[in-house]
Amino acid sequence: MNMQEHDFATAPVQIKELADLVRFSLRVRPEHRADMAAALAMELPQKVGDRAGFATGETLCLGPDEWLILTTEPAALVDAAREAYARLPHSLTEISDREITLRLTGPQVLDLLATGCPRDIEALAEGRAVRTVFDSATVVLWRDGPAEFRMDIWRSFAPHVRSLLAQAEAELIAGL
After folding, report:
1. In angstroms, rounded to a whole number, what is the distance separating the alpha carbons of residues 142 and 129?
2. Which residues contact 48 (CB under 8 A, 6 or more apart)?
3. CATH code of the domain made up of 22-96
4. Mean pLDDT of 88-96
């Protein structure tokens, strides 16, 4: 069976680009984290790699003073941040156009990711996310389930990463 005849519904991995998301980078001093979280009406996890949901989105701690925020209500977030700025200096930058997100799923998704990521992907707990590299591209890897991941990639690196993923996927399919 060649790749054109392969039933991709039963493929070892599925790769799908998700709709564009509204994303923000938030930088605030660690000592202001809790107050900023209250001002924005969301949890800002303290530990790198921890995620938290809120009414209109999700946050991810990327560093001691850095969070990624995904939201369906960007205007409300910007208004709350603007209101808090005088007492809680911070940087809130919309980065929606910078990245794309791929959903990677399937029984061999760990093998697929291992082809370009030096991390022990299996050790990444469900519900966590990390900034890492895939080949030479910086990515954010979200583990949503045992065989379900999201990968945020800068648009400029997306063709390179997609090419590597397609090659690895073809190798996995050929091994069926």
Report:
1. 4
2. 61, 62, 63, 64, 130
3. 3.30.70.1520
4. 97
